[in-house]
Amino acid sequence: MPKWVYVKDIAAAVGQQVTLKGWLYDHTDKGKLQFLLVRDGTGVIQCVASQKDLSPEAFAAAQAAAQESSLIVTGTVRADSRAPGGFELSLSNVEIVQLAKDYPITPKDHGIEFLMQHRHLWIRSARQNAILRIRAEIIKAARDWLDSNGFVNIDTPILTPSSCEDTTTLFETTYFDDKAYLAQSGQLYNEATIGSFGKVYCFGPTFRAEKSKTRRHLTEFWMVEPEMAYIDLDGCMEVEEQFVSYIVQTVLKNRVAELRTLERDVSRLDRVIAPFPRITYDDAVDLLNQKGLPFKWGDDFGAPHETVIGESFDRPVFVHHYPSAFKAFYMEETPGRPETCLSVDLLASEGYGEIIGGGQRTASLELLEKRIQQHKLPRSDYEWYLDLRRYGSVPHSGFGLGIERTVAWICGISHIRETIAFPRMLEKIYP
Ligand code: 4AD
Ligand code: MG
How far is CA 184 from CA 41, 174, 195, in A? Predict the structure, then answer.
């Protein structure tokens, strides 16, 4: 059998006999000519089976090949500007590995419910393939940037005895004779590891029992969370903007074809270069009222508010100094204005909403004890966390970037369900 190559490497094989292993994407029957569109995970190529060039068995296999059958084809690579991708394979053999019958997803329009029930097959489509490839690029870029900027990757636990964020979104499970929760964030643990390394990050799945159906919430999502000793709120924003710019520019450079498949208008992403605009929560409230969306100081933003704020700038915008009342217990107080805190959210451009939450953490033992009490958290679960304020406490900051929200924004897709291979959402755990 001639050399097995992948579609992505086909340009280097013009004029040669090669073998491709993949699946049938589409089939056009023109009698003595059979046009097979074959995909192999790296790309799609048109293959032409001409009756005169194939054995009767091989030509019969080409005729029989139905959508999503697995197959191995052999042929000569030709450059052809009319073919999708610019290359074509003139076949000499077709071997069907498994003949698929009645593939449920056809070129006609299927409803979203149907596609979600068939997610295990839907991920084969060109569009879903492009989204998941961009997701992988985003994850690689995030890791590359952190690894080359002095951050140490520390893995934090998934099974935890206590909460980090809103206690109403905890997934509870049993832990032998005790209770445990699935991690909402790795942050608290990495506030400990900065005491050993200075700058760290964790990257893993996080869990929230979100009880409302929205386009922006999953119950299981992936978050990358850097944490930094001796960095204040301003320093935190500087890191965030460098980090996000790098991720976006890397995707623009390396995933041109996928962005084109998604018909993404990249002119808006070209502009995503640090520095990003910064406004206070107070400014954001004024902005909303000016834009005709009545909003009261002290309320938390909902999706429509985030959209309006985000759309007012040509790149992502930081909103900082939120009211303490609706932020997590660990947020540092603003000096001289204790009703607000040193928190910052990054809202994506084009109205995609919050992609990062973070800020400066409470450094003082007394204030943290007070906060734990105000939030009615069981103090005994947080003794270890309080120790961090007893033994070498320092000003420190960190943030969490939600991978799926970032994928939705960069890909320009309106619903978060397509940003992960197997989304977990309210009352949805199949497949
Ligand atoms: O703003 P959040 O809740 O912040 C934290 O968890 C901090 N402990 C992070 C830190 O400072 N280390 O979540 C951070 C980000 C959000 O901006 C959003 O992108 C994403 O995580 N996120 C979700 N993504 C999908 N579905 C959900 N239910 C999400 N909840 C948060
Ligand atoms: Mg948040």
Answer: 33, 16, 22
